[in-house]
Amino acid sequence: MAKEITARADDYSQWYNDIVKKAGLAEHSAVRGCMVIKPYGFAIWEKMQAQLDAMFKDTGHVNAYFPLFIPKSFLSREADHVEGFAKECAVVTHYRLKKGADGEGIVVDPDAKLEEELIVRPTSETIIWNTYRDWISSYRDLPLLVNQWANVVRWEMRTRFFLRTAEFLWQEGHTAHATKEEAIAEAKQMQEVYASFAQDYMAMPVVQGSKTETERFAGAVDTMTIEALMQDGKALQAGTSHFLGQNFAKAFDVKFLNQDNKESYVWATSWGVSTRLIGGLIMTHSDDDGLVLPPKLAPTQVVIVPIPKPNETIAEVAEDIKRQLGQLGVSVKIDDDPKKRPGFKFAEYEMMGIPVRIGIGMRDLEKSVVEVARRDTKEKTQIPLDQIHQYIPALLSEIQDNLYARSLQFRKDHWRQVDDWDTFQETLEEEGGFISAHWDGTSETEKRIKELTKATIRCIPNDQPLENGSCILTGAPSSRRVLFAKAY
Amino acid sequence: MAKEITARADDYSQWYNDIVKKAGLAEHSAVRGCMVIKPYGFAIWEKMQAQLDAMFKDTGHVNAYFPLFIPKSFLSREADHVEGFAKECAVVTHYRLKKGADGEGIVVDPDAKLEEELIVRPTSETIIWNTYRDWISSYRDLPLLVNQWANVVRWEMRTRFFLRTAEFLWQEGHTAHATKEEAIAEAKQMQEVYASFAQDYMAMPVVQGSKTETERFAGAVDTMTIEALMQDGKALQAGTSHFLGQNFAKAFDVKFLNQDNKESYVWATSWGVSTRLIGGLIMTHSDDDGLVLPPKLAPTQVVIVPIPKPNETIAEVAEDIKRQLGQLGVSVKIDDDPKKRPGFKFAEYEMMGIPVRIGIGMRDLEKSVVEVARRDTKEKTQIPLDQIHQYIPALLSEIQDNLYARSLQFRKDHWRQVDDWDTFQETLEEEGGFISAHWDGTSETEKRIKELTKATIRCIPNDQPLENGSCILTGAPSSRRVLFAKAY
Q: Do domains A12-285 and A415-485 have the same CATH topology?
């Protein structure tokens, strides 16, 4: 009765869509490019949100909420920003509907045209910096460390569940600082927070680095990124943190008096991660039987299934295990539905990626053991009942570590240092993965490489040592390697 | 140095706006009718959200997320719904901007017109029931108990902070059931959840009842409400829970096979509370010195202020109190800013409604006492240092109870049973408050009363006994009293 999904080897893209649909994470909606995040998918987002929000607060940030709509003229204020964002946007032009002339249906009321169109926010730098002008007048008002959890809309033509949708959920931090150094330190700090979250919670290794000028956020001086590697050898930009210089302060005239009573423009950062992380989570760990979730982000960590069917003795044991584990902070679900067979349930919970399954059968109970199966390796073990409260938390921790180690190994196996153009092209075509190579530092070469291979420079890694070399394409001198990959 | 605010007696409406602004809760944005919820206001909303979300989950609900946009035609599907909601809406007509012909600024690209306009959701019944059609086929899929935290937009002409804004934040529950009885029970349960939240957390007494046909949600069979009374004698609808019958199931063709294999339309409820609750919270408890917050929803419950200025001994005592109270789950802030005088700080924290202030001075410390001031009554007491960890939690609990008792007393004092038209009019004009009166049950009379007095029927209270009487306006026979008030 297992719901079958396409194998990765057959069609990676279809495999991904199958998991999203069959694990009940999301589905298409009636609105082009917008998805419905279903309860199970949203529960994963809630776990992510809770952890990230705690990490933001631990680093001194507070939450606030700014309007969904941005006056059209705001987007034009920062020259680079308008290039990057004022294109594919949802535009509100009217504020009223009325009955159609034929009495059927409703039409837009032409008399209710807005004087200035409103844009559904694609990102909020403009409306927020317009607000900060009134919040900041002195160095005493700084730093201002604000985050917002919100929905944003970018009218994408080609969408994919979680990875690229017209509307998505995210958080956007917007901070204001008295000095350049402090703003840069903030942007770096948030890149570090994102990397910790990806590695410690998502069990997803990431490379920290900076974007090239071409790939930079529209309006940023420096875009710091965390880049992960998916199982098909493509990279995923998982989070970005921008040092915005004084660009938005100048565009919205946000100045402050420093301790010497001199006026100066404010320094800015912004940083964000989105529901795209769910896509990264799926593609990092899952297999041909369905979703695989790291225990720290699994809405249900343990499922208990009676075998072959529920009875009172089994129910008591199940409740006892649930209670014991619950006290230790482990989330447990008992599935005692008598209408479904255990085999059906096993396949269903494998599809949903529940990290640990406990099967309780009468024969096992006579020996005071239960069967514990882990989702990541599919191993099954008989565990004495009186050891369950020790075994399960340790196993969850081991699964978390194993998923990270496995992903890290995968990345090592798909990380090549390449020094000639033929190998570069071959590697991209045959294996994908990260390629560390020299580049001459020009946007022209970067563009040409993208045209020829579809690979982009994912980042200049933070820990990349200086090293003399020749550009992989032009042979021009280069002082350090950058990281190439095809990307989502 | 206290920031002065208008007294309630002078101008209630200005008093409210002053508190919102000077306590740092919200401010107007550059977008007409949309406000910025500032960090302190948002922190109150986060406390509300956390508690409500826990209560929704305890009653079996899960969260999900549906699109921000609703295809225009969806709004026409349910006849009453379109009347109520398809009017003042934000309408998205285009999906692209481009550079202006003069090279300056950006304009809407006329080539990027949507085939069907999209409405920014004013509420989500239509898009959600369109989705439920695919989620429900059998009684096994029911009940479906889903909630969404989201932003919604209603193009209000006259807006007020929190109470009525073009965009607001809310939660909307949308449930599907196999039977009418079960759906009604769900709607009643959520009314009860809202009432418990209002009373136990907001310390705001509410009347539970049903709306008359005129005041019902557009598309509902029965709208259950919780109604609170503000200090100016006006009522506030604080939350509603709707029994929707099969109206949306019919409009979106959502059927299921019951246990006898017969096809039937699904029964529905929806229920919501919004950032409007923050407005209710402010107007229920605050006074002429600023905001007053019930401890259970105060982001900071205790503030410690050194007198006259910080030193090492005081810092140690303050940290020790913070640590002790922190262990008990009390949130404490120490304000050791040497640049502000204690009097300034006192006024500031009174404005912010922090429930308890602890002043630590050297002379008091010699006697091993500190000064504890409560925000609700302004009483100050000397408390021995070694009793603080017992005294403060008990005091917070007492403040919570006192705020509720005080509001309940206010409501008792402004609740009249009236049987003649002259007294009815006089009471409304002179005192406001709730008026329990007989009504002949017709929409015509209800409408006439509203025209004559601006009072509406807030609800038919759930616990209102049957009683023969004559309508306050027409003298026609009535079988029970209903509750009138002027309302926000």
A: no
In this prediction, residues A412-430 reach a mean pLDDT of 97
Please name the residues between 367 and 386 in chain B that touch chain A, using a CB distance below 8 Å.
Answer: none
Superfamily designation of domain B300-397: Anticodon-binding domain (3.40.50.800)
Mean pLDDT of A445-470: 97
What single string gives the DSSP state of each residue in A304-325?
A: EEEESS--HHHHHHHHHHHHHH
Chain A positions touching B72 (Cβ under 8 A) are: 97, 106, 108
Element holding B117 (H helix, E strand): strand B113-120
Interface test with A, best of B80, B93, B95 (most A CBs within 10 A): B95
Tell me the residues of chain B between 96 and 135 that have a Cβ less than 8 Å away from chain A: 96-98, 105-106, 108, 117-120, 127, 130-131, 134
Whether A44 has its CB under 8 Å from any CB of chain B: the answer is no
Residues 6+ apart with CB under 8 A from A289: A2, A5, A347, A350, A351
Query: Looking at chain B from residue 160 to 189, which residues have their Cβ under 8 Å from any Cβ of chain A?
Result: 167, 169
AA identity, residue A282: I
Domain ranges of chain A: 12-285, 300-395, 415-485
* pLDDT at residue number A308: 84
Q: Which CATH number is A12-285 given? A: 3.30.930.10
Range list of H helices, B269-308: 276-285
Global pTM? Answer: 0.97
Which residue among B71, B72, B106 places its CB closest to the CB of A76?
B106
pLDDT tens, position by position, B207-243:
999 999 999 999 999 999 999 999 999 999 999 999 9
Listed in sequence order, the residues at least 6 apart from A332 whose beta carbon sits closer than 8 Å to its beta carbon are A300, A301, A302, A303, A304, A321, A322, A325, A326
Element (H, E) at A237: strand A235-245
**B253 interaction partners in chain A (CB closer than 8 Å):** none
pLDDT score at B313: 93
Contact B36 A105 (CB under 8 A): no
In words, the CATH class of domain B415-485 is: alpha beta
Residues of A numbered 62-81 whose beta carbons fall under 8 angstroms of chain B's beta carbons: which are they? 62-76
Contact A415, A434 (CB under 8 A): yes
Homologous superfamily, domain A300-395:
Anticodon-binding domain (3.40.50.800)
pLDDT tens, residue by residue, A15-48: 999 999 999 999 999 999 999 999 999 999 999 9
CATH class of B12-71+124-285: alpha beta
Asked if B95 and A90 come within 8 Å (Cβ–Cβ), the reply is yes
